[in-house]
Amino acid sequence: MKTEKQLEGNLRNLFMVLMSLCDSTIKNKIENTSEYPKLMKRLDSLGLLSVIKKLVYTGSTNEYDIRHNKAAALINLMNLHQEKIQSIQDFRDQYLAMKKVCDMLDLRIGRCENDAKKILKKKSVTNPTDAQLNKAMDQIEEELHAIIFMYKTDRHKYGNILDQMENDVLQKKDPFPKTLS
């Protein structure tokens, strides 16, 4: 019982800490949501985190800006490049975070049904189910992201590897990774 009350108190304190960490732009966006009065009254830190997550992923808490948010997310993903001092693991994490933003906005790249059907046809699947098509499109999307990631790495560090991979493609080999894992 005491621990539950202590947890509730800590969560309420967290609400104020979270609000104090927000800059004025984010704070204004939070305060202008329909949920804010209820969140403030209950000092609901988990609800506040949900609103912040929505703001971070979409730039807004409503659906009016969705086209703009998708364009901004895609531009941010395409402008992303590994910094010279950044480790490949840190860059991969950064890329995956940007990919997650795109996924949250339902901005899917490379999901072509015709490509999926070609892949399935090579596996002797001529009349694929929706599940098979979706699985193949997921695979295509993952492979595309792995290739994009490779091209966004530091060319000074990994340029020779990329050149070799491109030469392998010309020789009808498949050198690129299949996943970002």
Note down, in words, how this protein is organized.
This protein has 181 residues and is mainly alpha-helical. It has 2 domains: 2-58, no CATH class; 66-148, no CATH class. It has 9 helices and no strands. The chain has helices at 2-21, 24-31, 36-42, 45-58, 66-79, 88-104, 113-122, 130-152, 155-170. Helix 1 runs parallel beside helix 4 (45-58), helix 5 (66-79) runs antiparallel to helix 6 (88-104) and helix 7 packs across helix 8 (130-152). The protein is elongated, with a radius of gyration of 22 Å. The mean pLDDT is 89.
Brief write-up:
The protein is mainly alpha-helical and 181 residues long.
Structural class, please?
A: mainly alpha
Radius of gyration: 22 Å
So what's the oligomer here? single chain
Q: What's the total number of strands? A: 0
Q: What is the chain-wise order of helices and strands?
A: HHHHHHHHH
Beta-strand percentage? Answer: under 5%
For the termini, the CA-CA separation is: 43 Å
Total count of domains: 2
Uncertain stretches of 5 or more adjacent residues? none
Overall pLDDT score? 89
Q: Number of helical runs?
A: 9
User: How many strands, which pairing sense, and closed or not: the largest β-sheet?
Assistant: none
Shape: elongated
Portion of residues within helices: over 70%
